[in-house]
Amino acid sequence: MKDQCQRCNFWEAPAHQDELHDDDKYGLCRSHPAVFVGVSQESSEWACQEVSSWSQPVMYATDWCGEFKPKPVGASIPVAIEKSL
Question: What is the pTM of this model?
């Protein structure tokens, strides 16, 4: 078995990808806290505000890294997350 993201305990993918080939599936790596990706300006008729954006790295199912930790026995591949990417 390969140490790929789809088999890692830290990787989460949206369930809507079940029909895709493994090379096309993507998910979030949750091995570390989210990182800051920038600030954007949002405005409406009554307000203007800055919005900070944070994200986990987006990884393909067949990617890998040095922090692989196998999913617990019996865990499904991929683990579905409630919020779609």
Answer: 0.67
